[in-house]
User: What shape does this take?
Amino acid sequence: MPIHLLAPLAAALYLFAAVLLACPPMQQRRLPRLTGFSLATAAVLIHAVILIGVHRGGVDLHFFAALSLVGGCIAALCLLVNLARPVATLGVIVFPLAAILLLVDVFLAPATQPLPIDWQIKLHVVFALLGFSVLSVAAVLAILLALQERALRRRRFDGLVRVLPPLTLTETLMFQLIGAGFVLLTLTLLSGILFVDNLFAQHLIHKTVLSIAAWIVFGALLFGRWRYGWRGRRAVQLTLAGMLLLLLAYFGSRFVLEVLLKRVP
Assistant: This one.
């Protein structure tokens, strides 16, 4: 069976897992929750097999392939986070997104091939991928945190808010992930300085500047949290601002070149 035909199966598993985790009655029962995460685990494994098969085992950094890779990594990270802290609602947002990115890459994106890169650049890419994934989950938690605070102000606890963990747990986990993501982002920038030739070349200058700007935002947020106890709306806004800068840095130019201008290297 062609490897790409596994994509609908992985997408169905992602979506079914999200449905199980989204139902409030299911949240109170251990078996449906475990079933949801088991289905998501199977989806992540199939997702990985598809990435290896479709992109021939290489690190394909073209726009849609990179998005699918990030989607799979974020879904896997969501599973790992839930082993430590029960935030099942993360999967309600992350798993459908991973399914969409996988299907787009397999069925709608133009065919691409991995570019040959040295191990030093692969290490730089791994740091960047992990950092982006960790901070993406932190950004999702920031959105959930904003929903919780809004519900508290309005005293309306319906929808997703009903199945969220306590607000303090969500906030603590968000800052823990931001701390880990900040370390990985620092390693990304350092490895870029060490291993990437001419980091400030024309085609890399915007990525470098935006990545440094994101690093400053997340660093300022962590310092403000430590020194001044920043939390709530300010923390959410800075988290989302830093994530937007990273999104533009990692995918902005590739979207313009590959999607708008149809230039696939």
